[in-house]
Amino acid sequence: MSLSSASGSPAGDSLKHSDGPWTSASGTAGKLSASSDKSRVRLGLAHESVASAGSGLSAVAALVAVRQSWEERLTSVRGECDYLEGALRTVAKELGEADSDAQKAVRRVKVPREAKSEASR
Asked: Which string of DSSP letters, residue by residue, matches 55-80?
């Protein structure tokens, strides 16, 4: 059996996990969490004086409702991204440990000299 590597060429008969994509995805989720929280705060600051400045206007109530809706969405996005950041980091760690454990187990297997030379051909 020949498995493809990331480059598209055969990688041999072994499957190797890489924590790189998982770690990268975890970092991206963390950045998105921070960005969504920053946006939520900026949205609140931008609307601080809307109620007092627009008193008497019927559009103010609608604007406040829209702002609250967006704040809820951004809070939800942040929560999901916080969860994903940790979960993806855990996957990267566990896959890396699985590779390490498998490599150690393979190294403990005693292979006769003749089998080693045939395997290297």
From this structure: TT-HHHHHHHHHHHHHHHHHHHHHHH
Query: What pLDDT, in 10s, does the model give residues 54-111?
Result: 777 888 888 889 999 999 999 999 999 999 999 999 998 888 767 666 777 778 888 7
What span, in angstroms and rounded, lies between the C-alpha atoms of 18 and 8? 15
DSSP string, the chain: ---B-TTSSB--S-----SHHHHHHHHHHHHHHHHHHHHHHHHHHHTTTHHHHTTT-HHHHHHHHHHHHHHHHHHHHHHHHHHHHHHHHHHHHHHHHHHHHHHHHHHHS---HHHHHHHT-
Q: Answer for the pair 74, 39: CB distance below 8 angstroms, yes or no.
A: yes
Residue type (1 letter), 1: M
The verdict on pTM exceeding 0.70 is no
| Among the listed residues 65, 68, 59, 63, the one whose alpha carbon sits nearest the alpha carbon of residue 40 | 68
